[in-house]
Automatic annotation (TrEMBL):
Residues 31-113 form the Arginyl tRNA synthetase N-terminal domain. Residues 516-633 form the DALR anticodon binding domain. Gene3D superfamilies: Arginyl tRNA synthetase N-terminal domain (3.30.1360.70), HUPs (3.40.50.620), Isoleucyl-tRNA Synthetase, Domain 1 (1.10.730.10). The keyword Ligase applies. It holds the Pfam family tRNA-synt_1d. This is arginine--tRNA ligase. It catalyses: tRNA(Arg) + L-arginine + ATP = L-arginyl-tRNA(Arg) + AMP + diphosphate. Coiled coil: none annotated. Belongs to the class-I aminoacyl-tRNA synthetase family. InterPro entries: aa-tRNA-synth_I_CS, Arg-tRNA-ligase, Arg-tRNA-synth_N, Arg-tRNA-synth_N_sf, ArgRS_core, DALR_anticod-bd, Rossmann-like_a/b/a_fold, tRNAsynth_Ia_anticodon-bd. It comes from Remersonia thermophila. Keywords: Aminoacyl-tRNA synthetase, ATP-binding, Ligase, Nucleotide-binding, Protein biosynthesis. Its EC number is 6.1.1.19.
Length: 633
C-alpha cells in the first residue's frame, strides 16, 4: 500500500490515518481509496475534507459504483445540488490513478475505481494478511494510537439455557448470535469475556431433586444427564399438576385441604429449595451434581458449534447477601416499596410519562422473602462490573424478554449507576417457528443437529464419485448440517421470526449453508487441480486480470474489511452473510469466463491468485460467523 501511495503521489498512509477518523489504510483498502478520494474532492469542491470523508458511502451494488456521495451532505449553501454535482464531476481530474471521473446521477456523484486498482491492491493485501484480513485490532483499544494502554473489555452473555429444561429455539438463537458477536469483537481487538448465565436456581430445582430421590437412576444420569433430568422434570411436573387439580376439586367440594396442601409436592419443593438457599450441604450436593453433569454435556454441544465459554455463571451464583444489601439500598432510595407483603418497583412513580407505565410494576422480593429472576439479574450485573470492570456488556436474549431487560437497566440507573447501565445493551431476536414436533413434544438441540446431519449425509451419498473422495463423510455431514441450521438462523435480521424448515435449509439451491460451503469447497478444488504453490501465486502477474468478472470479484474482496466495520455497528450476522452470498454469486458467474486449469501458465497463476484470495475471504467470513469451512464435500 505504501508503495502504491508513493507511486500515485497520494499522501502517505500515516498521514491518512492522522487526518481521518477510523482510517486504517494499511488494513482496509477502502480506507485508502476513500482518503485519497476525499483529498481530491476537497480540491474540487472547496469543502473541508473532514466533512467529505464520512459522506462517502456504500452503493447498493457494483453497477452503481464503488462509492457514492450525496451533494447535500456537503452542506454547500446557496447552490442547487444537481448543478453542484455536474460542476464537480467536470472539475474532477481525468487522470487520477485510482478513480475514474465520477458520474452525476440526480444529486449524487457515483465513483468507480479504475479497472486494475482493486485487483492490484487487494490481492497482495489478502496474500499478506491471510486469516487476519478483515480484522482490525484498533476498534477495541482504549487508545487506538497507543496499544500499550490495553484493550477495552466486553462481556458477551449468551446461550444461558435452563438446566433440566429443554434447550429450546431461543437458546439456540442466543448461542449462534452470541458466538458470532464474541468472534466479531475479538477480531476487532476487544478483550472478550464469554459468559453463560445458566438457569440453575429456583423452586423448580427443589422439585427436580425430589423427583430424583423418588425415580432417579444413577446410571441414566451419568450416561445422558440432560435427557434423564428432563424426563424427571416432566414426570414430576405432571404429577404436580394432577395433585393440584385433585386438591382444587376437593376444596370446591368443601373439604378441608390444608393438610394436603402442607404436604403437597409444591410445598415440598419450596422447602427443598429453602434448604438450598440456606446452603444445606446435602441439598446442595445433589443440585451441584445435576449442574456439573449438565455443563459437561453442554460443552460437547458447544464444541460442535465452535463455541466455548470463559465462565459458566448462573442464577445460583448470585449471592443472597448481595441481594439483600441491594434490596435494602433500593428501599432506602425508595426504588421499591411494599405491596401486599412483597416488594415491588412501581415504575410509574419513578419514571415520568409513558415510559414509566410501560415498565410496569415488577416484583423484586416475594412475600416469603425469596428473590426473583429480576432480583438476581440486578445483583449479577453489579457483581460482574466489580469483577470485570467491563467497558461494555451485551445480553443476547430473545425479544420476549425486552421488558425484563429494560426494567433491569432502568433499576441500575435509578440506583445511581447510569454510567454502568449505559454500557449495557440487550441484543434481541425473534422466534423460531415450527421447531417442536407435531405431537408438541420438544426436541433437544443435539437431536436436531443429528437429524440435519443425517439429511446432509443422504444428499452427499447421491454423488458417489465425490462421496468416495471425502475423507470423513460423517464429520463433513455433521459440519454441513450445522452450517444449514446456522445460516438459516442468520439469514434475516435478528428481530424477524423465521420458520425452521429442514428442506429449505439443507437445499443447495438458494442462499443456504450447504451452498455457501459448496462455494468454498469449489475454490479449494480448483486450487488442488491447479497444483500451484503459494510462491507462484504471490509472483503472479496481476495485470493479466482485466476481465469484468475478475475485476468485480476484486472490487468485492476490497469491501470485506469495511463490511466487518459495518457489522460492528449493526451487530447483525446477516450483514456478513449478505456479503458472503454476493461473493459466492460473483464467483459462480465467473467460472465460465475465467478458466484456470487449462489456461496458459501465467494466466492460470493470475486467476488462481484471484480465486485463492476469494477462498481466504470466504473462509474468514465463515469462521467469523462460527462456521467450519470445508475443503471437500
Ligand atoms: N441475564 C439474563 N437474564 N440472561 C438471560 C437468561 C435466559 C434464561 N435462562 C431463559 O432461558 O429464559
Amino acid at each position: 500500500m505504501d508503495q502504491l501511495a508513493q507511486k500515485i503521489g497520494a499522501m502517505s498512509l500515516e498521514a491518512m490515518s492522522e487526518k481521518y477518523p477510523n482510517c486504517y489504510p494499511e488494513l482496509n483498502p477502502f480506507d485508502f481509496f476513500r482518503a485519497h478520494l476525499a483529498n481530491i474532492l476537497a480540491d474540487v469542491t472547496g469543502v473541508d475534507p473532514a466533512i467529505i470523508y464520512p459522506a462517502l458511502s456504500w452503493t447498493s451494488g457494483l453497477d452503481k459504483g464503488d462509492l457514492i456521495m450525496a451533494a447535500p451532505a456537503l452542506r454547500v449553501k446557496g447552490a442547487k445540488p444537481d448543478e453542484l454535482v455536474k460542476q464537480w464531476s467536470e472539475k474532477f481530474p481525468d487522470n487520477d490513478p485510482l478513480w475514474e471521473k465520477p458520474t452525476a446521477v440526480n444529486y449524487f456523484l457515483a465513483f468507480y475505481l479504475r479497472g486494475d486498482v482493486a485487483v492490484k491492491t487487494v490481492i497482495p493485501m489478502i496474500q499478506k494478511y491471510g486469516a487476519a484480513y478483515g480484522r482490525n485490532p484498533a476498534h477495541g483499544l482504549r487508545d487506538p494510537k497507543d496499544p500499550s494502554k490495553g484493550k477495552k473489555r466486553i462481556i458477551v452473555e449468551f446461550s444461558s439455557p435452563n438446566i433440566a429444561k429443554p434447550f429450546h429455539a431461543g437458546h439456540l438463537r442466543s448461542t449462534i448470535i452470541g458466538g458470532f458477536l464474541a468472534n466479531l469483537f475479538e477480531g476487532a481487538g476487544w478483550d472478550v469475556v464469554r459468559i453463560n448465565y445458566l438457569g440453575d436456581w429456583g423452586k423448580q430445582y427443589g422439585l427436580l431433586a425430589l423427583a430424583y430421590e423418588r425415580y432417579g437412576d444413577e446410571e441414566a444420569l451419568n450416561k445422558d444427564p440432560i435427557n434423564h433430568l428432563f424426563q424427571l422434570y416432566v414426570r414430576i411436573n405432571n404429577e404436580m399438576s394432577t395433585e393440584k387439580e385433585d386438591i382444587d376439586k376437593r376444596r370446591e367440594a368443601g373439604e378441608d385441604v390444608s393438610a394436603l396442601e402442607a404436604n403437597s409436592l409444591d410445598e415440598q419443593a419450596r422447602r427443598y429449595f429453602k434448604k438450598m438457599t440456606d446452603r444445606d450441604p446435602a441439598a446442595l450436593e445433589m443440585w451441584r451434581r445435576f449442574r456439573d453433569l449438565s455443563i459437561v454435556r453442554y460443552k460437547e454441544t458447544y464444541a460442535r458449534l465452535n463455541i466455548r465459554f470463559d465462565e459458566y455463571s448462573g442464577e445460583s451464583q448470585v449471592s443472597e447477601e448481595a441481594m439483600e444489601r441491594i434490596g435494602r439500598e433500593m428501599q432506602d432510595k425508595k426504588i421499591c416499596k411494599e405491596d401486599k407483603g412483597a416488594m415491588i418497583v412501581d415504575f410509574s412513580e419513578l419514571v415520568p410519562g409513558k415510559e414509566g407505565k410501560r415498565l410496569e410494576k415488577p416484583i423484586v422480593r416475594k412475600r416469603d422473602g425469596t428473590a426473583l429472576y429480576l432480583t438476581r439479574d440486578i445483583s449479577e450485573l453489579l457483581a460482574r462490573h466489580d469483577k470485570y470492570q467491563f467497558d461494555r456488556m451485551i445480553y443476547v436474549v430473545a425479544s420476549a424478554q425486552d421488558l425484563h431487560l429494560k426494567q433491569l437497566f432502568k433499576i441500575i440507573e435509578l440506583l445511581g449507576h447510569k454510567d454502568i447501565a449505559d454500557k449495557c445493551q440487550h441484543v434481541n431476536f425473534g422466534l423460531v417457528l415450527g421447531m417442536s414436533t407435531r405431537k408438541g413434544t420438544v426436541k433437544f438441540l443435539d437431536d436436531i443437529l443429528r437429524d440435519v446431519a443425517d439429511k446432509m449425509h443422504e444428499t452427499m451419498k447421491k454423488n458417489e464419485e465425490k462421496y468416495k473422495q471425502v475423507e470423513n463423510p460423517e464429520a463433513t455431514a455433521d459440519t454441513l448440517g450445522i452450517s444449514s441450521v446456522m445460516v438459516q438462523d442468520m439469514s434475516g435480521k435478528r428481530i424477524n421470526n423465521y420458520t425452521f424448515n429442514m428442506d429449505a435449509m439443507t437445499s443447495f439451491e438458494g442462499d443456504t449453508g450447504p451452498y455457501l460451503q459448496y462455494a468454498h469447497a469449489r475454490v479449494s478444488s480448483i486450487r488442488r487441480r491447479a497444483e500451484l504453490t503459494d510462491e507462484e501465486l504471490a509472483s503472479a502477474d496481476l495485470s493479466l486480470l482485466t476481465e469484468k468478472h475478475a475485476v468485480n470479484i476484486a472490487r468485492l474482496l476490497a469491501q470485506w474489511p469495511d463490511t466487518v466495520q459495518t457489522t460492528l455497528r449493526t451487530l447483525e450476522p446477516t450483514t456478513v452473510l449478505t456479503y458472503l452470498f454476493k461473493m459466492t454469486h460473483a464467483l459462480s458467474s465467473s467460472y465460465d469466463h475465467l478458466q484456470v486449469v487449462g489456461s496458459e501458465r501465467e494466466l492460470m497463476k493470475a486467476r488462481m491468485a484471484l480465486y485463492d484470495a476469494a477462498h481466504t475471504v470466504l473462509g474468514n467470513g465463515m469462521r467469523l460467523l462460527g462456521l467450519t469451512p470445508v475443503e471437500r464435500m
